[in-house]
Design goal:
Layout lengths: L13 E11 L8 E8 L3 E6 L14 E7 L2 E7 H5 L10 E7 L2 E7 L1 E9 L18 E7 L2 E6 L1 H8 L18 E6 L3 H13 L2 E6 L2 H18 L9 E5 L7 H9 L9 E5 L7 H7 L3 E4 L6 H14 L1
Parallel strand pairs: 2-10, 5-7, 11-12, 11-13, 13-14, 14-15
Antiparallel strand pairs: 1-2, 1-8, 3-6, 4-5, 6-7, 9-10
Length: about 325
């Protein structure tokens, strides 16, 4: 399976997910079970047969299976079931999903893949509506299909767990605001929200961090109402919007498009970020009017970019 330009037409609030599964063995307490998961196809390079690696005793993390050569890369292979705390049923037909995001190429060993689904972000339900046996920081959404629930994985949280340096150095910001600028930010990942919280706090921002684009949209509607009632400019309430692209209910592209089409909000600087921003996909954010786009390995640069945008607006 080759990766395609899969973010679809910009601003349609849709994505395509690759559904895969992990088979659990029969136990004394129950029969065999199949757990269904999903990941944005834009993060998938290809699917390959498992090299049937064994867990090395010297591995820094028990989910690490080893490395294999792939094209011009040395690919680390991770046992996704181990990271999730599941006992995967051994199968000689296991596969490895090769992903590319956050400027990192990794392989995740699973039991198999099912199909690709095109869904609207409004169909992605919040995981807190369901009981889950996993750490809720790694499940960012649920998609309901005919006879099953597909749990959308936050692969970034897995890499952050394995590499705490992901996202940069938040203790030493590259810039600090001379006054407490007001920022609204949103991300569906608890891991990334924690990074943003630390980064913006260290850089002297007044900030509110929300869970998705729909929450951000509602917050901005309240800002508009307050500005009208108090006869104050929008910039008194929010001076920059910082948004992830992939989020349940409303994605960052759709949010930015909505902001740019609103007469009261259209001048607010917008910074989009994602683990899938590349030179090839950057035009998607440009087309909806994003002022800046940042790849997730460089999250620590967001305050500096926000300060520059805010101060440029003040002097224009």
């Amino acid at each position: 399976m080759a990766k395609t330009d899969i973010l679809l037409e910009t601003g349609t609030n849709e994505l395509e997910i690759l559904e895969f599964y992990i088979d659990l063995p029969k136990t004394e307490s129950g029969p065999e079970e199949r757990c269904h998961f999903g990941v944005n196809v834009a993060k998938v390079m290809q699917v390959i047969e498992s090299p049937q690696l064994e867990h090395p005793e010297s591995a820094a993390h028990p989910c690490f299976l080893g490395t294999i050569p792939l094209r011009n890369h040395i690919l680390p292979v991770l046992d996704l079931a181990v990271w999730l705390g599941l006992e995967r049923k051994n199968n000689k037909y296991d596969i490895v999903i090769v992903t590319e995001f956050s400027q990192t190429i990794s392989g995740f060993q699973v039991s198999g893949v099912t199909e690709i689904h095109r869904v609207g972000w409004q169909q992605v339900l919040s995981p807190d509506k369901f009981m889950s046996s996993f750490d809720d920081s790694c499940i960012v959404g649920i998609v309901e299909k005919e006879d099953r629930f597909i749990q959308l994985l936050d692969l970034e949280s897995i890499l952050a767990d394995l590499d705490p340096t992901l996202g940069g150095d938040f203790d030493n910001p590259t810039a600090i605001a001379s006054e407490a600028y007001a920022a609204l930010a949103c991300d569906d990942s608890p891991t990334i929200r924690a990074m943003l919280e630390k980064s913006l706090s260290k850089a002297n921002f007044r900030h509110t961090i929300l869970h998705n684009g729909e929450e951000m949209q509602n917050a901005l509607k309240q800002v508009k109402l307050a500005a009208k009632q108090e006869n104050r400019p929008i910039s008194d309430y929010v001076e920059v919007v910082i948004s992830d692209i992939e989020m349940p209910l409303m994605d960052g592209f759709s949010l930015t498009k909505w902001i740019r089409e609103d007469d009261q909000l259209k001048n607010i600087p917008v910074i989009l970020y994602s683990s899938i921003i590349t030179k090839e996909l950057k035009h998607k954010g440009d087309s909806v009017g994003a002022d800046e786009q940042v790849s997730k390995p460089d999250l620590n640069l967001i305050p500096e970019k926000a300060i520059k945008l805010i101060e440029a607006r003040k002097t224009s």
